[in-house]
C-alpha cells in the first residue's frame, strides 16, 4: 500500500497524478490508482534479474506530479524454490580397476542450482551398493564437491559393473531433487 506508506490520502494519489518514473529499464511494477497499491506488472524471475547475489533489490521512484514530490522505493525480491538442482550429465560412467585400494576417491560432477540461500543445493545422497560411499567436501566458495569413495574391494568376477544413483537435494519446502545415474565399470 504505497499511498499509506508515503502518507498520502488515496484521493490525493488519484488527483495528483502519481506515477512510477521510468528510467529506461523494464517496469516490473505499476501503481494501481484506485487502491494505491504497488502491483507487479509482469513476472519477475529473481535468478534472471540478480543471478547468484544474496540480496536482490529493485529501486524505483514514484512521482506525485502536482506537489512535485519524488519518493524513492526499494523492493527486495525474495527467492522461491523454483529451480531443482541439476547435473550437466544425468548418466555418468566410471572405469575402476578391481585392484583399486579401499579409500580411493573418485571426484564427481557437481550439481548446479540457480536458487540461492536455503533454496539452493544443500546436500548429496548416494544409493546403490555397499562397495561405494559418498564424501562431500565443502569448497571455500561454499560449493559442495561430491566424490565416490571405494568402501569395499572390487572383484570383476563377482560383479562387472555397479549401478549407483547420486541425488542432489535443495533446502526448499518441499525440497527439489536432481539425480544422476552412475555406472561403475570394473576393469579386470
Automatic annotation (TrEMBL):
One of its GO terms (biological process) is homophilic cell adhesion via plasma membrane adhesion molecules. It comes from the Eukaryota. It is a single-pass membrane protein. Keywords: Calcium, Cell adhesion, Glycoprotein, Membrane, Repeat, Transmembrane, Transmembrane helix. The keyword Chaperone does not apply. GO terms for molecular function: calcium ion binding. PROSITE patterns: CADHERIN_1, CADHERIN_2. Residues 1-87, 88-188 form the Cadherin domain. GO terms for cellular component: plasma membrane. It is found in: Membrane. It holds the Pfam family Cadherin. Gene3D superfamilies: Cadherins. This is Protocadherin gamma-A12.
